[in-house]
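Hi again,

Forgot to attach this to my earlier email, sorry! This is the prediction with nicotinamide-adenine-dinucleotide bound. I've pasted everything inline since the attachment limit keeps bouncing my files.
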Amino acid sequence: MKDYWQNYINGAWVDGGAGRIDIINPGTGEKIAEQALADAADVDRAVMAARAVHLSGALSDLRPVERGRMVQAIGRYLLDHIDEIAEVLTLEQGKPLWEAKIEINGAARYFEYYGNQAETVEGRSIPLGKGYFDFTTHEPFGVSAQIIPWNYPVEMTARSLSAGLATGNACVIKTPELTPLTNAWFAHAAEAVGLPKGAVNILCGLGHEAGAALSSHPHVNQIVFTGSVPTGIAIASAAAKNVVPCVLELGGKSAAIVHDDADLDAFENDVRWGIYFNAGQVCSAMSRVIVHDSVHDALVERVTGVAQSLTVKPGIEQPEFGATMGAMVSEAQRDRAAGMISDAVSAGAKVATGGRKMNIPGAFLEPTVLTDVTPDMTIANEEVFGPVLSVMKFSSDAQAIEIANGTPYGLVGGVFTRDIDRATTAARQLRAGQVFVNEWFAGGVETPFGGYGKSGYGREKGREALWNYVQTKNVAIKLKG
Ligand code: NAD
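Structure tokens for the complex follow:
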């Protein structure tokens, strides 16, 4: 492991004007490296380098298939280096090594998908009657600023960078302060696949300094933000001042509704992925289960069993896929989650299993199940962003939907039943950008993803995401005769 990591601006590795930040391994609490921190002047250099690439036409004038091939090659580059990236990802983020490999495979899949999509961004011809020829084109915005969270630093950058490059934008990426290291491989990949200098710029900096400078920069033309609601509001406000569009992928408090006819055997597997994958630090985590009275006790017994079956230890000791969980990203995040559990217990919730910080070095929290949670409690409304499942009861379908829709968020929702009418009715009624029926996280890179309500706006993933990275131009031609 290198002990100092620089930023990548205009094709060069550079120090940061704001100094350095220590990167801590949450699996041990030990410092693993230092990362250069960008200041506003670094951000300005990166944006101006991206702008120069855009104005030169080096990306936007390419035949889309040629851009698409480079985008696909970035994904292959990541896979060729998966072992080294996964190790660093586990050390900086805390997730098991096998989960880190899933993340890198997921990241590569974005480049495959959007590389393929590059040549599908087509316009149309609009009839205007005799004497006119009219057509639309979709042009890149120019400089795409992408601000990344710490939970999936590789996959979240991949999601925005792949679509941004495929549509011909030059990109400036602000990596998260806690987990910036693995983003270095995007810079290596950009060089390896032959992208022009300045097409991909990767810098780490503090949110209120480099992040704020990027989101308010007058030459940024479009912003994609993945992160928390308060930061999303700050970024949308900055974007509004410059009249540039932004995509906000924010948090969630997503609920699975489990009916009395649900397949509980299958649901056990969903719980394992839904709330304990990445130690629950997933925006679309299944953080609430709303279960019919008649199957409540059986379900609690099963989900408690799932939580207790997980071995929790440093991610680097977990190379093989299995019933394991790693550290949370930092002790501060772990302490916040533990505090939310204590507050929930004071408010009347019961701990069915877990609930405590683990008495070992590192940011570990026991996989937790809370029962007797009621919709008015803070734990039922605010994102924990940790391995904490809140179980609530319902007695009628209408009540289940009311509880599910009862938070300000609306990222995803799920319904578990053998009755297709009940499932489709719930799918229509759930106020969420994506609904899973009988499998949490069903879907993939191909399916549009994004929030209702405070979970944000705009869509990432799927073909829908492409339209966030292009602007439509109409050309109306008056013909002779
Ligand atoms: P965060 O909002 O604290 O930080 C996200 C990024 O924004 C970081 O890079 C940070 O440096 C930057 N930032 C902070 N303040 C800024 C400012 N004033 N201006 C510009 N940039 C600023 O979020 P986090 O704690 O890193 O991530 C966790 C949150 O992200 C959770 O709420 C989670 O639900 C959400 N998330 C959402 C998705 C999604 O796709 N919807 C995916 C992953 C995470």
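The chain has a mean pLDDT of 98. The chain has two domains: 4-249+456-474, 255-442.

That should be everything now.

G.
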